[in-house]
């Protein structure tokens, strides 16, 4: 198992040489910079003296948050009080030497610190600034507070996560902070695009990027907006099914687990019906096309569920995989961590964290030829301020 690599010796990743300052807390901005750091960018995470609040979330090992091992990986951590003159001065020094800034304060907070885009571009006219907020930098809701759950709710996603006709329980969240993660991904994408433009044009000025949680979720709503605009349709919750493809659903198994099956195409549908012992259904004219199957999906789902209920999920999955029918058990984290495909592709990998010991990390969600997933984990999330000396003395050349 490789030890944590030196901050001086990054692998030749695509964004090596790009310097980004992070004024982020909690999830959205730090998620964006984690992706950029995995790609090789030098990310300097500026934390308050007490550290990012997310360091107090979740399980701990001797006072160190397990999640932060991933959340802060490949980043240089420095601590500054942004309310102090010294803290603001050091941020300006960092900005003068940076390509980009990522922040996720509430709109107006950066300006109240005296570090708004106008002030920062006066220091570095070519700086790219990515701003992530709940509702965006303008609009009537600009100043309202928001967290990820609000992005899901207002962006249209939470409405869709209910079961049809269910009114006694609220629609559940997806289980992770999907709004923050989406906004972080969009911010990272836009930042790289803006840096490409600036670096490609010696005369280019810096750009300001505005990404919000609500808009990030709303962008995933497929054809729902034009459908509403043209026909007045409002898509309703579908539970585990897909309204436009059948049979595609999640079915109960004998061991209490669930099996997701996608028998969408005509060919796969025939293979599925043969595998569950109902080959006659494949020639039934009511099921001849996907459109017809959608009309009679209740009967089809009943046939499939009658079969899955007789078998443990893994056994039913093996039968369908042999028949080349797309399917999967609903994996929990134990399934992911122990699955041979996850391990073979190093989607799950063991790394050595000097703060918490050997720990499992998820791989970066991209691959490049000649660069393995382990090459992207140069070091794990450090303690708050771990790189103060390196950044303030060596990079900025400040006296103690």
UniProtKB/TrEMBL annotation:
Gene3D superfamilies: Crotonobetainyl-coa:carnitine coa-transferase, domain 1 (3.40.50.10540), formyl-coa transferase, domain 3 (3.30.1540.10)
Alphabetical UniProt keywords: Transferase
MF GO annotations: transferase activity
InterPro entries: CoA-transferase_III_domain, CoA-Trfase_fam_III, CoA-Trfase_III_dom3_sf, CoA-Trfase_III_dom_1_sf
Domain of life according to the entry: Bacteria
Transmembrane segments: none
PANTHER family: SUCCINATE--HYDROXYMETHYLGLUTARATE COA-TRANSFERASE
Protein name (Swiss-Prot/TrEMBL): CoA transferase
């Amino acid at each position: 198992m490789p030890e944590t690599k030196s901050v001086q010796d990054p692998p030749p990743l695509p964004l090596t040489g790009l310097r980004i300052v992070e004024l982020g807390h909690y999830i959205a901005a730090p998620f964006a910079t984690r992706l950029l750091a995995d790609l090789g960018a030098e990310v300097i995470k500026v934390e308050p003296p007490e550290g990012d609040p997310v360091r107090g979330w979740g399980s701990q090992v001797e006072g160190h948050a397990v999640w932060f091992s991933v959340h802060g990986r490949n980043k240089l951590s420095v601590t500054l009080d942004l309310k102090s003159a010294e803290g603001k001065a050091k941020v300006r020094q960092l900005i003068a030497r940076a390509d980009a800034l990522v922040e996720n304060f509430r709109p107006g907070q950066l300006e109240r610190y005296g570090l708004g885009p106008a002030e920062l571009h006066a220091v570095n006219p070519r700086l790219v600034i990515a701003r992530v907020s709940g509702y965006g930098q303008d609009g009537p809701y600009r100043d309202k507070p928001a967290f990820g759950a609000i992005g899901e709710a207002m962006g249209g996603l939470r409405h869709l996560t209910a079961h049809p006709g269910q009114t006694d329980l609220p629609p559940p969240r997806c289980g992770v902070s999907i709004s923050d993660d989406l906004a972080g991904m969009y911010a990272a994408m836009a930042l790289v695009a803006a840096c490409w433009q600036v670096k490609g044009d010696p005369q280019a000025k810096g750009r300001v990027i505005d990404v919000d949680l609500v808009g990030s979720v709303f962008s995933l709503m497929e054809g729902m907006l034009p459908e509403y605009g043209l026909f007045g349709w409002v898509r309703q919750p579908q539970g585990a099914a897909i309204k436009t493809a059948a049979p595609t659903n999640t079915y109960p198994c004998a061991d209490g687990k669930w099996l997701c099956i996608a028998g969408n195409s005509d060919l796969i549908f025939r293979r599925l019906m043969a595998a569950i012992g109902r080959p006659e259904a494949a020639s039934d004219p009511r099921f001849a096309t996907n459109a017809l199957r959608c009309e009679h999906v209740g009967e089809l789902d009943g046939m499939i569920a009658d079969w899955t209920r007789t078998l443990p999920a893994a056994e039913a999955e093996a039968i369908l995989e042999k028949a080349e029918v797309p399917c999967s058990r609903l994996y929990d984290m134990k399934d992911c961590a122990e699955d041979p495909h996850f391990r073979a592709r190093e989607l799950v990998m063991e790394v050595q964290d000097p703060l918490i010991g050997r720990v499992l990390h998820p791989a970066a969600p991209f691959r490049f030829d000649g660069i393995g997933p382990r090459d992207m984990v140069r070091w794990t999330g450090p303690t708050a301020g771990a790189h103060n000396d390196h950044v303030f003395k060596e990079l900025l050349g400040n006296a103690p």
